[in-house]
Amino acid sequence: MLTVALSKGRLLQPSVEFLNRAGIQVPEDILSSRRLLVPEETRSYQFLLVKPIDLPTYVEHGVAAVGICGRDVLLETVPDLHQPLDLEFGRCRLVLAGKVGDRVQNHNLLSTTRVATKYPRVAERFFLSRGLPVEVIYLTGSVELAPNLGLAETIMDLVSTGRTLRENGLEELEEVAESTARVVVNRASFHLQQEAVQDFLRKLRKVLE
Fold this sequence. Notes:
Layout: E1 2-7, H1 12-21, E2 37-39, E3 45-50, H2 55-60, E4 66-70, H3 71-77, E5 82-86, E6 92-99, H4 102-105, E7 114-117, H5 120-129, E8 135-138, H6 145-148, E9 154-159, H7 163-167, E10 170-179, E11 181-185, H8 187-192, H9 194-208
Parallel strand pairs: 1-3, 1-4, 7-8, 7-9
Antiparallel strand pairs: 2-3, 4-11, 5-11, 6-9, 6-10
């Protein structure tokens, strides 16, 4: 039985739909059930539901052989995993944003010292690559509040349409990275469960063709 880790939240439903299209029948109640470990009917797979930021850890430590998570999470956690497939759904962008008008008043807004984000490692690397000092303020949610309440001058967050930024008086300053759903594979499982892993990847590739 191949254990497949799935990210709870925004990627769960499209991941389930993609797997079903690949002929991997995920139990219908997985989206509404509170179960975190769900076996497939044929017992070829079992699905592990975890928080997105934790998924690479579960796969890297071999609790799950494979998983599906966003590239944004992989950029933040930098796990030691194979990343054989870009599944091309869940497309969004990681951006740096600030208050509307601040860019006009302060042309060197990137030199501000405080950025609020769920992605502290990515933020540190981003500013370091530009030789700019930064204080990273780690938040787990509602980062859009930070500039308006004076907690930070800028934020780094994931956006899809940009509507949340606009409704909170923020504008995009720079795109940091693009994110889509990726398949990750435990390095040991890639060899020890080679047949099952390759069969899983083969089914997913057919959907992408």
